[in-house]
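User: Could you write out the 3D structure of this protein bound to 7TS? I've included everything you need below.
Assistant: Certainly. Input first, then the structure.
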Amino acid sequence: MAIASNKLNADFDIDSIRGQFPALDQKVHGHSLVYLDSGASAQKPNVVIEAVDHYYRNDHSNVHRGVHTLSERATVKYDASRVSIQKFVNAASDREIIYTSGTTEALNLVAQSWGRANIKEGDDLLVSEMEHHSNIVPWQMLAAEKSATVRKIPMDQDGVLDMQAFKKLLEGKPRVVAITHVANALGTVNPLAEIVRLAHDAGAIVVADGAQSTPHMSVDVQALDVDFYAFSGHKIYGPTGIGVLYGKESLLDAMPPWQGGGDMIKSVTFDGTIYNDLPFKFEAGTPNIADAIGMGVAADYLLDIGLEAVAAHEHSVLSYALSRAAERSEMTVFGNAPDKAGILSFALEGVHPHDIGTMLDHQGVAVRTGHHCAQPVMQFFGVPATTRASLGIYNNRQDIDRLFDGIDEVMKMFRR
Ligand code: 7TS
């Protein structure tokens, strides 16, 4: 469903885009809002809000069951959203798109279904040091159950994956490489295609976390040749509570279901159950219909703008932010990878991140402070937390200026 009214010219019309996000148009503590927390969750454009609203007002019913008109309408829209998502990541088939509640559930699905069926005692699982907890803990749980070992792929002081160490670890013939495409606490863009090639040569599958890449860049799962790719609707300007597991059809076909229930079966008797075809085998129970529809609209919205234009715009805003940060001796930036997307994670000398976050909020600037669910990254840099400004398509240089004006205020307060 392409949205003609949102067709933007190749120059990326930032003012038009900002106008499509109603939540941006408000005051916080008397200041116009500057939203720099899209890495945690992005704001929603009108087209997404209206699609969910329209669905509930007109079309809501359960899917894949009723013969009545509303059920048919809901089913058509729900199924169409999967085709939008297929296009969004260029999957070979919509059977390869499994709906989950988000990235977290998608990664747990792989660990619990593929992992339980394929991991044996003594196997190695490689997990990078810059992962979000949701691409660490499911592998630790699996390893504990199977007496397998999780091994860390280290990074360097710039937050760049240590490819030499990775190649060395591959000599141990691991079964799985769990790796984020873009690191949420650092912004590092990992060379995923190369990682996949090396992992495959060593006989491992690659489970990639696309939660922070899909909002910022064009993703082509076929070109990457990645085995599994997880992402969340709410970070690509869609609703919360919905996300995606892409998996290669051959792998998904061979995997056992994870949860049992309605919709994931063809027939059930007390002698046994025949499971449904893909993707439904992995979607037990009434799905999150409205939010799946909203997520499909969000994916169309981004495709319509063009992910190359999004990436170019955000890159220019991030470069500006990094150049302003470089002027500040009191500021340490975490994550200086040459290839970086969307994230400025930093410390200010002598000021606790939570104080920075609170003071910025009082000036209308929303950032996230904390460990960003990436505690190993904090441990690596020896800090309990960072302050993180994360970009969305609606941010511009003026937002960065407001961030740095806010930082000036923080420093004035703490230097007194
Ligand atoms: N993976 C990465 C790289 C993430 O950034 C996040 C969420 C997740 C997985 C989990 O996604 P969910 O939608 O299942 O929760 N990251 C953040 C963040 O950086 N700040 O808040 C949430």
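Residues 39-40, 102-104, 132, 134, 180, 184, 209, 211-212, 232, 243, 368, 372-373 surround 7TS (CB under 6 Å).
User: Perfect, thank you.
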